Structures are given as C-alpha cells and as structure tokens.
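note to self: dont lose this again. the chain is below, predicted strucutre after it. 402 aa total, dont forget to put it in the shared folder this time
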Amino acid sequence: MDSVTDNALLATLPADKASQRGRGLLFILVGLLVGIAIDRLIVAPTRSPDAVAPPQEARAAQSTFSRVGDRIVVPDTSPLRTLLGIAAPTMKEVARTLVLPAVVEADPSRTVKVMPPVTGRVINLKVQLGGRVEQGQELAVIDSGDLAQAYSDIEKARSTVTLTKKALDRQLGLEKAGGAAIRDREQAQSDYAQAVAELERSEARLRAMGVPADQKEQSRLLSVKAPVAGSVIDLQVAPGAFLNDPTAAMMTIANLETIWVTANVPEKDIAFVFQGQSVKVTFRAYPDEVFSGKVLFVSDVVESDTRRNKVRIAFDNPDKILKPNMFAEATFEAPPVSRLIVPTSALLMTNDRTSVFVEVAEWAFERRNVEIAYQEGAAVAIKSGIRPGERVVVKGAVRLND
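---
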C-alpha cells in the first residue's frame, strides 16, 4: 500500500525535480569511485616490496651455508662467497720491544739499618737526611741508663772473679796440706768458673753497645758509629727523641756505588724478559742520555695485588747521579722470532677463548682455537693453533659464527 502511495507521489512531482534527484545520485556514485582510486594510489606505494618474500627467496637466505659434522660448507650458489675473505697467514720475523715504567732503588745487599744499641734519649744528632758518612763516623750521641748499668755489671763481674780466684787458690793450698775436703775445692772451682762466665757476658754486652770492654773512662753517654760508608737515605730520629724499641731503626745507610732499576712486568709479558737480557733505561732527570744495562734477575714471585713481576737491572753509580726513588723508563728488547701474523678481523671471541675459521677444503671451514702471543695494532701474532700454509677467513668470519 505504501509503495503504491510513493509511486503516486512521484508521479505528481514535477519533471525537473526528478531530474535533479537523479543527478545527485550520479554525483555521489562518482565521488565514491574517485575516493577508492585515490586510496589505492596512496596506500600502495607505502608497502615494501620485500614485506612478504617469495618462498624461493626465503629458501635461498636459509641456504647460505650448511653444517656437515664440525665443518661449515658454503655452497656454490651462496651469496656468502662474495662476502668472505680467505688468506694464508704471513710468516714474519718480529723483534718485540717492551717499554715499562721503572724506579731507582738502593741495593739491599749494600743497605744497613742502624738500630739503637741501648734505650735512652738522643742528645745530639751528627748527620742529616741525604748526607754521606764514612765507616766509623759518629752518627748520634745517646744518654742511656742501660750503658751505666752495663758498666756496673762489668765491675761487679770483675770483683767476683777476683774474689772467687782467691778462694780457689786458698782451697788448693789447703788440699795440698791435707787440711781441706775435696768437696770444698770443687765448690771453689765452680764459683770461679761462674764468675769468669759472667765477666765474659758483661764484656760481650758492652762490646755489642759499641763500647770497648777495656775502656777506662765510664760515662752514661753512648756514641753511635756508622757501620758502613754510604748515604743516609732514611732518618727516623731527632735530638730529644727517646729510644725505647731496640728493633726500630734510627736511620738507614746505603752504599750507592751500585743501584738497582726496578721495573714491574705485567703477567702477560713475563715470558718476554729473561736474565742477562739487554735493557736501555732513560731517566727523567737526564732525558738526553740512554743508560745500557742487563737484567740482573727476574723475581720468582708475581705480586698478588698488581699481578706484576719485578725485574731488576744493576747500574754502577760512582758519581751518585742516580738517586733512589728517581723515575725511569726501561726498554726491553728481545731477539727476533718467526711468528704467524693474522689481522684482528680473523679473530672470534667466545667466552674466554679466541678462535678462527680455517679452510680445510675448498669453501669448507673448521673452527679452531688459537693462542695469541701478542697484538700490535691491527695485526696479531699467533703462538699456536694454526700451521704455516693454512688459509683462514680474514674477512666476514662473524657471518659463519652460528
């Protein structure tokens, strides 16, 4: 009923209004078609041509190389062949030099620590730090009660020896006359022997203090003498200081006619240095002068805190121009040795191991661990793992690292 009514109404509309409605519908249809076309033109170029790879391209990407046991094989059709570089390591005569910081030290075998022979107070100091002394030269004067006690002990010992000697002589005389017992004579002999031993002990103690046992003049003042000739490289006392520790050094005297230059060699370079090796040393104080020496000895112990090994070079120093604690630079030179050299690009690091890919057949590679002797710039000297004549991957090796 409604459709009949609508048709009746359309029939009653004017002809021009019907035509206008038809044109409007046409315009709407054309607009929709144009919109769809524009949308396809805008969206289509943004799609990547490689967004969805054809099945054959995916298979080609997966077949760049294959694994056969421990070998990696690169097939003829693989694009990886154009990305890899293969070459034989070069054999080269290498003369390494090792430059290390060093320091001047006094020779311990020519260094003496002066200990106080007695307790007491320093009333006079006759030397200064850095000064030179001769053997037997007076270093300091100590006022000591121990010295006075030592003099008293030796006097008592001498008196006891005299008394026991008279008693022994008396017993020997009575024994000859038959008026003394053997027991009394033996006791007198024992007393005399003990008195002599005490006197010897008192004299030895006095000599240990640096005082002659037969010195007539007795005083509380003790003169400390230099045990050796040399330079005072350490001073721990001053006038007025009280000395109560016989194990604490008053000062240190070193003979600097010969000095040591000590270098600390890193643990990885220990095999590079050896006893008798030639060394050139330069000092900051004399930058234009080079001192030539030889390694005196290499320590058998690696320092636990620094992981370095001490190497010492001895130098004669008659003019005392080289002084303890001066900084130096030691250059160690080793005889040339033949080494296989490869570029660092051939090395692959896996955990704590270093490896390379070695060509065992045409375009077939095997991973092999190597030991590095040392590295200089972009080249590495191989100690073991590769034999002369073998070819290794020197470019693009990481592409085989699956």
